[in-house]
């Protein structure tokens, strides 16, 4: 890839020795280095008649609504609408947007559904910024789309829910956490026309082998069954074979339903430089940025580091801003908008930045710290050069970087005693005495502090209890504390509102300076048998919507429904502890292995481009070795891969086999270097 050669792409021999010890439609998203859209089973089987319909409906829709007549020679969206296999990954978002629009066009043509019965396409994505950008772009073209996420106010959510119930939406975007909301899931089940397509973006989050495993994503496969989605498409830019296998297993997808594109990006130059001390990186990055102009992303590990490095760059005369997950939403949006509009050249960011960003002219991507995994690295360098112009990616590393990565990985496994204590707390005497079907609450924040368990592994533990052991199911969470600040009309409300809910709120609200607080559990006891907690929450939200007060909720309490008899004996808890501990330790080792893979690539002799390609899919490389048993000529093997004919190759008929030219999207020099290693290893083995 780019200019790096197999023998000189890593600079720093001494360091190497040390390491041995240790608008969606306006810019079609071609996305990073690898994309694996996958489509699952369908409720209907396509017919020949459907083929004719497909040929005309989807392309016509694409022209009329998006303004594009082509996105990729084999655009998958034309086939997804009829539940056929995925054919493309270029223009990832179009793979669900075009079908969502085409369904109504097709219904009108065949007369199979009446107006308002076209159904909906649901897109599950963890990227709030991406959801908003895509919805805005769709609305500009009069396409009925919206999203449900944590940034929406209560009134805004009600508008979306009403449009959903009335069958007025074509696409609905939501975060995976929304699937814990029972009301939302029930509403989706009864949407007019049903769910025509469920699209799962960033599908690698489903896999425990993925670099961004999110327990809530495991619930998406269950949702697909519960809402009876007609079609499912899973999309990701970073799917190793193991990840793809997990996704296929979760959604019951056949191997024929998997499509991969090549990870090779010829316009990217991948480079790395090693130093002994972290401080040495600063002069290097200053020099690099002076020599390499254009929009630049600099990735770091810690939030504080993003702020400090951005400040250091500004002190050197560079136009730089920081971006990290700890910033307020409006602050993050301001940085993103400035970067997109070329009002700021450099963004120093944690991994929170870049996902879903479609800026085509990013010229440089710098890794100031060690990437978490090869998947993360490939995804981040994939932000560069989307316009096809030459772009440079630089990786600075030092021994200290590896300590930090190991620190993160080791911190996610609690002590066995802590895990056992947590399980005893979850399944306490009061909870285990509840009958199946009843609900109990837990305060995760309190448990993280009491049992010294980080929030991420705590979420994994609860997900395992739900999805692996089938003991509980997460439902809509609630807040432990509500506060409100009266508006001018509130005092008149106190005199006129006589409902039981209002009386309970007025009697139990306790005033501090400006804000009132209310304990809802105590408040409902003032009207025994007549009120529920939900009644009071509904009334408070109603007053908030109508401007009588400003409402704030805090202290999330997670709620779980009991699915079967819970463990109650010490022996049962011990057994559960052992299984969960084994799982957490396995995840810890997987995280360490992912960091080691990055180290091996950056400090090794393999061409970066080929190394990444082999990480994501080594099948083609192995297929060439299987087709040709001889290990006497690495250039001969490289010719097969690249598609160069020779008398020997033709005589053996290899030019007629599928392996011929199967790796033409790689640099010949990289292929030659890899096959040279294979032949050398075979020679050594023969001598032994």
From TrEMBL:
<comment type="similarity">
    <text>Belongs to the helicase family. RecQ subfamily.</text>
</comment>
<feature type="domain" description="Helicase C-terminal">
    <location>
        <begin position="281"/>
        <end position="435"/>
    </location>
</feature>
<dbReference type="GO" id="GO:0009378">
    <property type="term" value="F:four-way junction helicase activity"/>
</dbReference>
<dbReference type="InterPro" id="IPR011545">
    <property type="entry name" value="DEAD/DEAH_box_helicase_dom"/>
</dbReference>
<dbReference type="GO" id="GO:0005634">
    <property type="term" value="C:nucleus"/>
</dbReference>
<protein>
    <recommendedName>
        <fullName>DNA 3'-5' helicase</fullName>
        <ecNumber>5.6.2.4</ecNumber>
    </recommendedName>
</protein>
<dbReference type="GO" id="GO:0003676">
    <property type="term" value="F:nucleic acid binding"/>
</dbReference>
<keyword id="KW-0347">Helicase</keyword>
<keyword id="KW-0067">ATP-binding</keyword>
<dbReference type="InterPro" id="IPR001650">
    <property type="entry name" value="Helicase_C-like"/>
</dbReference>
<dbReference type="GO" id="GO:0005524">
    <property type="term" value="F:ATP binding"/>
</dbReference>
<dbReference type="Pfam" id="PF00270">
    <property type="entry name" value="DEAD"/>
</dbReference>
<keyword id="KW-0378">Hydrolase</keyword>
<dbReference type="InterPro" id="IPR027417">
    <property type="entry name" value="P-loop_NTPase"/>
</dbReference>
<dbReference type="InterPro" id="IPR014001">
    <property type="entry name" value="Helicase_ATP-bd"/>
</dbReference>
<dbReference type="InterPro" id="IPR004589">
    <property type="entry name" value="DNA_helicase_ATP-dep_RecQ"/>
</dbReference>
<feature type="domain" description="Helicase ATP-binding">
    <location>
        <begin position="90"/>
        <end position="257"/>
    </location>
</feature>
<dbReference type="GO" id="GO:0016787">
    <property type="term" value="F:hydrolase activity"/>
</dbReference>
<dbReference type="GO" id="GO:0000724">
    <property type="term" value="P:double-strand break repair via homologous recombination"/>
</dbReference>
<dbReference type="Pfam" id="PF00271">
    <property type="entry name" value="Helicase_C"/>
</dbReference>
<keyword id="KW-0547">Nucleotide-binding</keyword>
<feature type="region of interest" description="Disordered">
    <location>
        <begin position="35"/>
        <end position="73"/>
    </location>
</feature>
<dbReference type="GO" id="GO:0043138">
    <property type="term" value="F:3'-5' DNA helicase activity"/>
</dbReference>
<dbReference type="GO" id="GO:0005694">
    <property type="term" value="C:chromosome"/>
</dbReference>
<dbReference type="GO" id="GO:0005737">
    <property type="term" value="C:cytoplasm"/>
</dbReference>
């Amino acid at each position: 890839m780019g200019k790096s050669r197999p023998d000189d792409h890593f600079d720093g021999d001494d360091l190497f020795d040390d390491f041995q010890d240790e608008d969606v439609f306006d810019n079609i998203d071609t996305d990073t280095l690898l994309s694996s859209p996958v489509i699952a089973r369908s409720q209907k089987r396509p017919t020949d008649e459907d083929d004719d319909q497909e040929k005309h409906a989807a392309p016509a829709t694409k022209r009329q609504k998006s303004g594009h007549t082509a996105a990729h020679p084999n655009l998958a969206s034309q086939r997804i609408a009829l539940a056929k296999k995925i054919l493309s990954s270029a223009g990832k978002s179009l793979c669900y947007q075009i079908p969502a629009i085409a369904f109504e066009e097709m219904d009108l043509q065949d007369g199979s559904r009446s107006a308002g019965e076209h159904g909906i396409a649901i897109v599950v994505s963890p990227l709030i910024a991406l959801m908003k950008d895509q919805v805005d772009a769709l609305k500009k073209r009069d396409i009925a789309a919206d999203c449900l996420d944590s940034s929406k106010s209560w009134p805004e959510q009600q508008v979306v829910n009403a449009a959903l119930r009335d069958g007025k939406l074509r696409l609905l975007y939501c975060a995976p956490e929304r699937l814990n909301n029972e009301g939302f899931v029930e509403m989706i089940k009864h949407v007019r026309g049903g769910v025509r397509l469920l699209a799962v973006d960033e599908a690698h989050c489903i896999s425990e082998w993925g670099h961004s495993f999110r327990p809530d994503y495991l619930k998406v496969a269950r949702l697909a069954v519960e809402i009876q989605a007609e079609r499912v498409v899973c999309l990701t830019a970073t799917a190793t074979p193991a990840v793809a296998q997990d996704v296929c297993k979760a959604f019951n997808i056949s191997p024929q339903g998997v499509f991969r594109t090549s990870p090779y990006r010829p316009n990217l130059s991948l480079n790395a430089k090693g130093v002994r001390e972290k401080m040495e990186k600063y002069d290097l990055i200053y020099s690099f940025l002076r020599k390499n102009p254009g929009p630049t992303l600099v990735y770091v590990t810690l939030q504080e580091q993003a702020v400090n490095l951005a400040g250091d760059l500004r002190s050197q005369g560079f136009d730089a801003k920081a971006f990290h997950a700890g910033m307020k939403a409006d602050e993050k949006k301001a940085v993103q908008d400035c970067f997109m509009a070329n009002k700021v050249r450099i963004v120093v960011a944690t991994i929170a930045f870049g996902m879903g960003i479609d800026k085509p002219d990013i010229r440089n991507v710098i890794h100031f710290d060690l990437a978490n995994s090869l998947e993360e690295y490939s995804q981040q360098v994939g932000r560069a050069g989307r316009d096809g112009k030459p772009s440079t990616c630089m990786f600075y590393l030092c021994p200290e970087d590896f300590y930090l990565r190991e620190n993160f990985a080791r911190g996610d496994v609690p002590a066995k005693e802590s895990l056992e204590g947590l399980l005893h707390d979850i399944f306490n005497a009061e909870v285990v005495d509840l009958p199946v079907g009843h609900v109990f609450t837990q305060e995760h924040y309190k448990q993280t502090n009491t049992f010294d368990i980080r929030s991420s592994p705590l979420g994994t533990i609860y997900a395992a209890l739900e999805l692996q052991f089938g003991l509980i199911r997460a439902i809509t969470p609630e807040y432990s504390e509500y506060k409100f600040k009266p508006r001018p009309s509130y005092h008149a409300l106190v005199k006129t509102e006589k409902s039981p809910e209002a009386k309970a709120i007025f009697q139990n609200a306790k005033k501090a300076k400006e804000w009132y607080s209310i304990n809802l559990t105590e408040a409902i006891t003032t009207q025994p048998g007549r009120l529920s907690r939900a009644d009071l929450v509904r009334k408070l939200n109603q007053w908030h919507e109508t401007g009588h007060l400003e409402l704030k909720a805090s202290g999330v309490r997670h709620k779980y429904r009991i699915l079967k008899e819970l463990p109650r004996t010490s022996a049962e808890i011990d057994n559960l502890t052992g299984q969960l501990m084994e799982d957490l330790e396995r995840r810890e080792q997987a995280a360490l292995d992912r960091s080691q893979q990055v180290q091996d690539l950056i400090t090794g002799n393999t061409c970066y481009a080929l190394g990444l390609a082999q990480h994501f899919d080594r099948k083609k490389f192995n297929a060439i070795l299987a087709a040709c048993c001889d290990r006497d000529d690495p250039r001969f093997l490289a010719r097969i891969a690249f598609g160069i004919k020779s008398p020997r190759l033709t005589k053996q008929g290899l030019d007629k086999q599928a392996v011929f030219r199967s790796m033409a999207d790689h640099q010949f020099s990289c292929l030659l270097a890899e096959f040279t290693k294979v032949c050398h290893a075979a020679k050594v083995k023969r001598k032994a």
